[in-house]
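Working notes for the structural subgroup meeting. M.R. asked for a predicted model of this chain before we commit to crystallization trials. I am recording the input and output together here so anyone reviewing the notebook later can reproduce the run.

Input as submitted:
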Amino acid sequence: MTKFALRILVLFISLLYPIVNAQIKKIGVPFISNYNSKTYKAASENWDLLQDSKGMMFFANHFGIMQFDGVRWGIVAQPENRSMVRSLAIDKNDKMYVGAQGEVGYTVQLPNGQYKYTSLVRLLPDSARNFGDVLHTVIRNNEVVFFSNEELFIYKNNKINVIRSEAKFDDFFEVNKEIYVSDNAKGLLKLENDALVEIPNSKEFIGMKIRKIFETKDGLILLTQKQGLFVCKNNQLKPFVTEADHLLKQNQISTGVLLSGGYFAIGTRQTGLIVIDSKGNLIQHINKQAGLQNDYVTNLKTDREGNLWVTLKEGISMVQIASPLSKILDASNSESKIYCSQIYQNKLYIATDNGVFWLDWNAYKNGQHHNVNFQHISGMSENVWNIGVFGNSLLAFEKNGVFEISGNSAKLLAKTDGAWQGVVIANHPDLLLVGGYNGLYLLKQINNSWVYQHKIKGFEESSRVIVTDKDENIWIAHGYKGIFKMRLNKTFDTVLNLQFYNDKNGFPSSLFLNNFKINNQILFGTTKGIYKQDAHSKKMVPDVSFKKYLGQESHIRLLKEDHQNNIWYISGENTGKMSQKPGGSFTKEELPFRKLRYLYIPGFENIQTTANGDVFFGTQEGLIHYNSTKNKKYESKYKAVISEVKCIFPKDSLLFSSRYDVLSTKTEQANNTLSPVLSYSNNALHFSFASLCYDQPDATKYEYWLEGFEPKWSDWNLQTEKEYTNLPENQYVFHVRAKNIYDVVSEQATFKFEILPPWYRTTWAYILYLILFGVLIYTIIKYQKNVAERDREQLILNQEKELLRNRAELNEQKLALEQENMAIMKENLETTINAKNAKVASNTVNLIHLNEILLSIKDLIGQIDKKNDFNTNFGLLKKINRIIDHELQGDQHWNEFEEIFNQLHDNFMQRLKTSFPELTPRDMRLCAYLRMNFNTKEIAPLLGISVRGVEDTRYRIRKKLQLSSEANITAFILNF
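Returned structure, recorded in C-alpha cell form:
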C-alpha cells in the first residue's frame, strides 16, 4: 500500500511540475529592462518582433528591421521603398519575410553578416500594388501570408495570389495554423484553399474589432478592442468575464499573446500590459507607473528563455515574466533603499532613510497593486536601521532612539544616542537589549508595554550586530575591531565580564566580522568563510559543516534561518539558500538569486522570511520578493555571436557586420565567405561580440582566443571588444564564448581568416631572392678575382714605393737625430763654457784686485825704515791696516764683480735684493759665493772673516730668507 501511495505521489508531482513551472507571479512587479530610442538610435515606434534560430532579436521599426544581440542595436535592412516596417515572420532557415508600408519582401543574411533585402512587389499585378501598411506577416506550411487592410497576399512558389476585400479588412489572426480574417462587411472569415469563407454565425462578429484570437480547451478566446474578452465554443459567442474587465474595456486592447500555463498577456493602448490566468483572474498589471516606458503596447512576443518582449509606441521593454523574483512597487514608488522589512498584522513595513512605510500586504499580494500604496509612519523621518516584533509590539530602531509603531504613527520609547537593533535576553523574555551607537541600553516589558530602564555600564562600543546564546552570553560584532563577548550582572545594569576576539584569537582578519545564531549555535562570518569557537581551546576555528557548502574563500555577510529550517546566506556577491535534506545534509541553491548581485546596501544586507514562504530582500533598488514555488530554467542553452569584424587600417574596413549599408557590393562579393584572405597591410583587426542571453546582459562575461596567435583562452571579463595588431602572416580562427549571470557557458562563435605575408615574404619573392642571390654570388666572385689581380699589381707597386719612402724617412730620421744630438751637445758645451767663464772672470777680478792690494802694501812696507823711529814705522803700519780695512769694506771691486755675476746668473743679485730687501751687501756677497757653490772655508778669506763669522752670517741670512731649520740655504740659493 505504501509503494502504491508513493507511486501515486510521484505521478502527481510529475503532473503538477509543468503547472508549477508555468506559474506567473502575482506578487510584485517583474524585473523590466527598458530600451528607448536614444539607446537603440532608431525611431521610437516599434510594431513587431521575432527571434531567429540563433536567438537574435529583430524588431519592426519605423526606420527598418532593427537587430539586438544583447549588447548592440542596429538597423540591418530596409524595404526597397524605405518605408516603415510593420510586420515580420521567419522560417526555419532564418529567412525573414517583411511587411512594410506599400511593400512586401524578404531578407537573408549573407556570409559577411549583411542582410540582403529582396522585394516581392514585382510579383504583384499592377492593380494590386497600391496598398497601405502590411500589418501581419505569417508563414504557414510552404506559404507566406501578408495582410493589409486592402488586400491579402499569399506568396507561394514564387507567385503571389491576391485576395481583395469589398469593404476592407479589419484584422488578421493565426490560430493554431489556421488563418482567420475579420471583414468589416462579412464578419469573421477563414482562409481555406486560397479563399476566404464565412464561418458559422460570422455576421455576429461584425463591428467587434477583434484584435487577437486564442485557441484553448474551452474554445476560442477573442480579444476585442473595447468590449473585453469573449469565448466562442460550439459556434456560441458569450462574454468571458475577468477581474480586469474594467481595465480592458476602458483602455482599448491592441494585441495579446498566449503564455505557457494558460496565461494571457494582453496589450492595451492606454494602460500598458495586463496578464490574466485562464479563469480570468488578474495576475499582473504593468503600466508606465510600474516600469514600462509607455502605456501604448503595439505587440507582444516571448523568447526562448520565457521573457516577454513588449514593443511600444515609444520604445521596447523586456519583462522577465518567468522570474521568481519581483519588485514590491506601488504607484508612488518613492522609497528604494531598504534596510529592513517586516510583516506585522497583515501589513508590510519597510525601514528606509526617511522613516518607516507600510502597505496592506493582503490586498497587494492579491493583485491590487494600483490601489495599494506605501504610507508613511508619522513620528520618524530619519534613518531607520531595523524593525522587529517584540512581544505584541512593533519596534523601530532609529537614529534618535527606539520607537513603538502603532497604527500610522510612532511613539518614542527611549531616546538614545542612536539605536541599531534590539534582541531579547535569553531566559528573560521581558528584557530587551538595544544596541546603540555608543553602547547598550535596556528596556523592560511592563503591562505589555516596553519601558526604558537604563544604559548598561562598562561598554561604550557601537553595537550594531547582537546575538545572545542560551547561557545568557551577549555577542557583539564590531565590523572594524572584532567580536565582543560579555555577561551582565544580575541587575542587568553593568557588564560583569568582557572578552574580546580578533585575528589574534584565530580569525583570519579583525575586519568585517559578523555573528549569527543558527540552530542555537553562535557562528561568525569572516572574509574567509564561517568560523565558530572551539569548546576546549576557546580559539576561533573554521566550521567544518559549512566549509563543505560555502568554502573558505568568500566573505560571509549574512546567515539567516527561515521557518522551514532553510539557511539563507549572502556569501561574497552571491545569495543562496541551503535546504536541509532528511539525512542532515544540505542542498545549495544560488542561481535564482544571481540578479541580486551588487544590489544590497553594503554592510546592511537583509533577508526577511515568513511562515508562508515569502522571502523579502532589502536592496538599494527597493524591496524584492521571492516565491519559491516559481521555477525558472536557468541552464538554457544560448549562443555567443561575433557582431562585427573590421580591419583597423584602413579605417573602418569592415570584413563582417550586420549593420545596414556598411559593406559595399564590391566588398560583399569579395568576402562572400567566412574565411577572408587579407593582405599583410590589413594585419590589425578589431572584433566586436555579444551573447544572445538577454537576462542582465551587462553582467555577462566573455573569454576569447585567437587560434594561431595565442596559446590559450583569455580570462573571463566584461569586455565585448578585442583588438589585435601587427599579426604575422598565418591562418587564424578567432573564438569567443560567453558566461551569463547563471554561470552557463554559451556555444562559441568563430571567425576564420588568413593574413598573407608581405610581398617581400611571398613565394615569388623568395624565388626572386634566390635568383638575385645567385647573380650576386657570381658577380661577387668575378669581381673578387678582378680586384685580387688589381690588388696584387698595386701591392707590388705599393711595396716598391713603400720601400723607397721608408729609406727616405730613415735617412731623414737619422739626419734629424744627428742634428738633435749636435744641438744638445752644443747646449751642454755652452753651459759648461759659461760656467767656467764665470768662474774665470770671478777669479780674474779677485786676482787683479788682490794684486793691486799687494802692490799697495808692498810700497808701504818699502817705506818702512828700520832706522826710523818707532813712531814713524807705527804710522806706516797703521796706514797699511787702513788700506786693508778699506779694501775689505769697499764696494768698488765688488760692484764690478756683481755686474759680471748678474750677467752670468740671470740677474741673481737684483732678483734676490727685490725679494728680500733686508739683506746687507755682506749678506749679498755671501749669497753670491753660495750661488757659485763655494763652501764655508772658501768663503771666509773672500769675506775677510773667520769660519765662525761665515756661520753666523749664514744664520742671519736664513732668518731674513724665512727658511726653516730643516731647509738647506745653499740649495735654496742655487734654485732661486
